[in-house]
């Protein structure tokens, strides 16, 4: 029994005529009759009651008609999904993201996928840059979003975001409501910093921003995760410098002051294996990431195309 025989049977059952069914199938009647007979012999039941004047479904034939239609519909659905997968319209991509990319990049990425490639879904892992690079090299990830730009053979990369920073203070801090607050104004304040081990790009950005203003930060507390940094600031343990996108969530108990570009920038790149054969990945890069990098939010970089490490 194969799908072709099921299609033949359904057509005869719908027409209740071998002549009309053969015309609809663009074939002659004798081969059609033989296929139905072979199907009945294989199943061991009579599906159609035939006389010279009429063709009727038997009780077994009525049941088999319902099952055959269901099987044919499922087969068509499977074929459609396979075609979608082959053209990159449907797939699950394994994605690694630096924590700040979860705030900045993930919402825009999901929105773009919804609009352009709704059949592509993401399996997201919060990972630092080194973890992402290792996972990409051994094919445990399809796509990564990182701060640093490692020179790793076989990895392609594309800038998708270039964001500025914000100074964050407790909402009840005496300086929280000051207009035009500058980084130099909190020179004497204790600082809550990102862990250098877990978020080197953010730690280095904080140091560089302060040094650019002519002072070294008084780091009093260290945290691994952005939520921990913000909670410690909310508790009054100090102030911090965070990517500006964190302010977009309107977190209670905190006051954000955007810093000028001279205070530093946060760059996020997408990286992937250049040899990854996934059609879905290629379409995400070409139709989504390029758009995010060139025509996305106001702070997106406009620096050209994909870079491939030799």
Overview of the molecule:
42% of the residues lie in helices and 22% in strands. With 310 residues, it is an alpha/beta fold. The protein folds into three domains: 3-85, Arc Repressor Mutant, subunit A; 91-162 and 267-308, Periplasmic binding protein-like II (D-Maltodextrin-Binding Protein, domain 2); 165-263, Periplasmic binding protein-like II (D-Maltodextrin-Binding Protein, domain 2, 3-Layer(aba) Sandwich). The strands form four sheets. Strands 4-3-5-12-6-13 form a six-stranded mixed beta sheet, with helices on both faces. The protein has a three-stranded antiparallel beta sheet with strand order 10-7-11. Helix 1 (3-15) packs across helix 2.
Number of strands: 13
Average of the residue pLDDT scores: 84
Shape label: elongated
Described by strand count, sense and barrel closure, the largest sheet is:
6 strands, mixed
Which class do the helix and strand fractions yield?
alpha/beta
- By CATH, the superfamily of the largest domain comes out as Periplasmic binding protein-like II
Fraction of residues in helix: 40-55%
Count of helix runs: 10
Radius of gyration: 31 Å
CATH class of the largest domain: Alpha Beta
Query: What is the number of domains?
Result: 3
Protein name: LysR substrate-binding domain-containing protein
Keywords: DNA-binding, Transcription, Transcription regulation
Domain HTH lysR-type: 1-58
Pfam families: HTH_1 (PF00126), LysR_substrate (PF03466)
């Amino acid at each position: 029994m194969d799908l072709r025989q099921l299609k033949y049977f359904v057509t005869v059952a719908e027409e209740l005529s071998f002549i009309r069914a053969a015309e609809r199938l663009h074939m002659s009647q004798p081969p059609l009759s033989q296929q139905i007979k072979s199907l009945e012999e294989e199943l061991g039941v009579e599906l159609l009651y035939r006389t010279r004047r009429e063709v009727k479904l038997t009780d077994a034939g009525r049941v088999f008609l319902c099952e055959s239609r269901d099987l044919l519909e499922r087969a068509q659905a499977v074929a459609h999904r396979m075609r979608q997968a082959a053209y990159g319209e449907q797939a699950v991509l394994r994605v690694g993201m630096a924590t700040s990319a979860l705030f900045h990049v993930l919402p825009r990425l999901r929105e773009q996928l919804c609009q352009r490639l709704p059949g592509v879904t993401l399996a997201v892992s919060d990972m630092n840059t080194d973890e992402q690079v290792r996972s990409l090299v051994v094919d445990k990830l399809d796509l990564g979003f990182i701060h640093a730009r490692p020179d790793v053979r076989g990895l392609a990369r594309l800038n998708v975001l270039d964001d500025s920073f914000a100074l964050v203070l407790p909402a009840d801090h005496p300086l929280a409501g000051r207009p035009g607050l500058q980084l130099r104004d909190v020179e004497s304040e204790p600082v809550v910093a990102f862990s250098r081990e877990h978020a080197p790009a953010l730690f280095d950005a904080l140091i560089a921003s302060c040094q650019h203003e002519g002072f070294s930060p008084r780091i009093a507390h260290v945290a691994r995760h952005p939520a921990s940094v913000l909670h410690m600031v909310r508790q009054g343990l100090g102030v911090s410098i965070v990517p500006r996108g964190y302010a977009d969530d309107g977190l209670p108990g905190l006051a954000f002051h955007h810093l000028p570009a001279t205070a530093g920038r946060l760059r996020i790149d997408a990286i992937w294996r250049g040899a990854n054969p996934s059609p879905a990945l290629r379409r995400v890069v070409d139709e989504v990431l390029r758009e995010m990098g060139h025509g996305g939010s106001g702070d997106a970089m406009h620096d050209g195309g994909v870079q491939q490490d030799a």
